Predict the structure.
Amino acid sequence: MPARVDKDHSSSSVNGGITMTRHAETTELTPQRGTLEQITLTAHSLAGLTYASEKLVADGGASFEFWLSTAYADALQDTLRWERIHGTGVGEGLGILHSPAFISVAKEDGQTAATVLPANVFKMASRTWGFDERGTSWVVNPMLRTQVSALADPDTGKPLFEYARSDGERGRLLGRPCFFDERAAAPGSLGDIVVAHWPEYIRAVYQPATWATSIHVRFLAVESAFRLWERSDQQPWWRSALTPGYGTDTLSPYVALAARE
């Protein structure tokens, strides 16, 4: 599928080569062409299979199949969320840590292993394209919760983390929702704290998840087979980081703190 190329704003273009200029009356406009690139999505299979005895199925009734189908729906979402960060793109979705547009923010001089400092999150935010836009959030390993929750501005002492005010809400780090998620990398590793503008991540479904059962596969063992299967792909939209109109540091929707080991 075609996607616009928007990698360099230093030339005044913010849309793949398209620019606007002031136009004097009766003078001719200079024609322009936008630049497009191709995004390739591959329908990888994602599936799960379980055998259950006919006795268990009969005794459990509808509640058993409901439990199993719900368990597989949860497993599907868990896999997709893990891929969004760590996926290699080989036979599976491509995660942001492997994106060519990914930015790793270096640790501070002398920073202790597996720590998170106020300077880290400030610098990560400054490199995140779309940080102030809806859809941007942090993903942090739960073992870093105590550190992140205690972060404060070294100049003013103002907390950088705000606890959720009601059920169903998320705490916020620098004003953006913060998810403490076990899918983030281990503390001290690249990917243990990530910030991303998720609207710039694409998921495409070729064949939606389908739940199927069969009594034939394990007929001689008196078992039924249960399967959930879909064909899909997911990957970052961006193919490179962005050179801003002014400044030297590149920007990206996908940013993580470098390893502190």
The chain has two domains: 1-38, 45-204+233-257. Residues 1-38 form one domain.
